[in-house]
Amino acid sequence: MGKSKSKRRQADDEARAYGKLLRGSPQKLNLVAQTIRGKAANKALAELTFSRRRIACEVKKVLESAIANAENNHQLDVDRLYIKEATVGKSLVMKRFRPRARGRVGRIRKPFSNLTVIVKEREESE
Fold it and tell me: Cβ-count burial of 55 within 10 angstroms (0-12 exposed, 13-18 middle, 19+ buried)?
């Protein structure tokens, strides 16, 4: 028998890409995601290319994946795409310990993040 096919969660003019276990805190990743929200896809790619933040190259990979999904899987026009959503979430946190003075330890937290990018096709303006 098997399970019936689930309905598509996005509209027909949207495409999504996930970035899981990105090495960096959600707070820092959200600063980069804020800069591209609502922008045209090609302008967002240009901004991420020249960003000085380390996590920007990972965000760029996820955005390129969303654009490729839109083009190949949903037959959307790449020139009319814009970033509808860029959401950041917490993932796991690695904990490491460093010896400190007088027998104590200093805890080091190494956070990971998740990123979801949804691109949408703009309507034709006449």
Answer: buried
Ordered by where they begin, the domains of the chain are 14-121 (3.90.470.10)
Q: pLDDT of 45-84, one tens digit each?
A: 999 999 999 999 999 999 999 999 999 999 999 999 999 9
The structure tokens 């979430």 sit at 89
The pair of structure tokens assigned to 103 is 């027998």
Give ∠ CA 21-97-104 in degrees, rounded to 5: 155
Q: Comparing C-alpha atoms, which of 54, 59, 75, 69 is closest to residue 119? A: 69
- How far, in Å, are 5, 55, 93, 123 from residue 8 at the CA level? 9, 30, 32, 20
Question: Six-digit token pair at 81?
Answer: 């795409």
DSSP 78: G
Rounded to an integer, what distance in angstroms lies between the CA atom of residue 9 and that of residue 15? 10
Q: pTM of the entire structure?
A: 0.90
Distance from C-alpha of 84 to C-alpha of 36, rounded to nearest angstrom: 10
